[in-house]
Amino acid sequence: MTKSELIAHLAAENPHLRQPDIELIVATVFEEITAALARGDRVELRGFGAFSAKQRDARTGRNPRTGAAVPVEGKAVPYFKPGKELRERVNGGAPQPSPRGTRSPANA
C-alpha cells in the first residue's frame, strides 16, 4: 500500500473528514516518527510495532568495479520490530507457539 492508497482508504472509511485533513494527519504522523528517529528516540505503537534507529559502525568496504578499499562511515539505520499482535494477524490470526518453554506431550 502506498501513502496515497492509505489516504484514499482512510477517506473512504471516514467520510466525515475532508481529504486535505486526512493528508495532513498522515503526513504529520510520518513526520513525527521520522523526527523522533532522527533525535535517537524509539517510537512504539502498541499492537503494531516499534521503530528505532540502529547504529552501524564505520568499516572498510570495496568498490565493486575496481575492488579498491573504500572507507564507509558509521551511520544510523532505521529499524522496525513488529509487535506481537501484528505478527499474529500476518500469520493467519492464530498465536504462534513459543519455541522455548513448550513441552511435548511425551514429556508431560
Structural account:
Helix 1 packs across helix 2. The protein contains three helices and five strands, in the order ααβββββα. A hairpin with a 6-residue loop joins strand 3 (59-62) and strand 4 (69-72). The protein starts with a helix and ends in an 18-residue tail after the last helix. The mean pLDDT is 89. The strands form two sheets. It has a three-stranded antiparallel β-sheet. The chain is 36% helix and 25% strand. The chain is α+β, with helices and mostly antiparallel strands and 108 residues long.
Which features would summarize this protein structure in a list?
DNA recombination, 3-stranded antiparallel β-sheet, alpha+beta, HU Protein, Chain A, Integration host factor subunit beta, Histone-like_DNA-bd_CS, 3 helices, IHF-like_DNA-bd_dom_sf, 108 residues, translation regulation
